[in-house]
Amino acid sequence: MCGAELTALPESVQRVARLLQDAGHPHAPVMLDDAARTAQQAADALGIDVGQIAKSIVFRRKADGVAVLVVASGDRRVDEKKVDALVGKTGRADADFVKASTGFSIGGVSPFGHANAPVMLIDRELFRFDTVWAAAGHPHSVVQLRPQDLERLTGAPVVDVVQSAA
């Protein structure tokens, strides 16, 4: 990627693409024909298992209003009590808070390239897969990576923050 092709992408995707390029990541964001606002929509568009979607869930820490971003496997449900035990009491984040704190709209929250650095956690269940796909700054944009790349690019700890699989 030389940079010229980035100009056709939405600004938020360009920001993610530049960060990935600067970090030497081998994959650029891909624009999908349809929105992938949910893990299932993204998995269907890519023809992969929903668990391979690295979904970004944003919470608002009650003590200081800081965004808490949890990246978890698309087939798992985040356990808010486990998150709270690690970062302090959290609450739901509305669309305005998500956009203001991350710089991304819900459905396109990338694990990297945020407007303001969130507290971040990566759930260990993502490491079941060799390859995962994460939002890349827009509801139509995703990027391929390995769970280890996600850990390296974000510096976030890998923890257990999902409900037990049924």
Characterise this structure.
Strand 2 and strand 3 (67-73) form a beta hairpin. This protein has helices at 11-22, 39-46, 80-87, 95-102, 147-154, and strands at 30-31, 53-61, 67-73, 90-92, 119-123, 132-135, 141-145, 158-159. The chain is globular and about 40 Å long. The protein is α/β, with parallel strands linked by helices and 166 residues long.
- Fraction of residues in H or I helices: 25-40%
Q: State the secondary-structure class.
A: alpha/beta
Major β-sheet, in short? 8 strands, mixed
**Number of DSSP helical runs:** 5
Give the N-to-C terminal Cα separation.
42 Å
Question: What shape does the CA trace take?
Answer: globular
**What amount of the residues lies in strands?**
15-25%
Describe, in short, the structure shown.
The protein has 166 residues and is of the alpha/beta class. The chain is built from five helices and eight strands, in the order αβαββαβαβββαβ. A hairpin with a 5-residue loop joins strand 2 and strand 3.
Tags for this model:
166 residues, alpha/beta
SSE layout and pairing:
Blueprint (H helix, E strand, L loop, with lengths): L10 H12 L7 E2 L7 H8 L6 E9 L5 E7 L6 H8 L2 E3 L2 H8 L16 E5 L8 E4 L5 E5 L1 H8 L3 E2 L7
Parallel strand pairs: 2-6, 3-5, 5-8
Antiparallel strand pairs: 1-7, 2-3, 2-4, 6-7
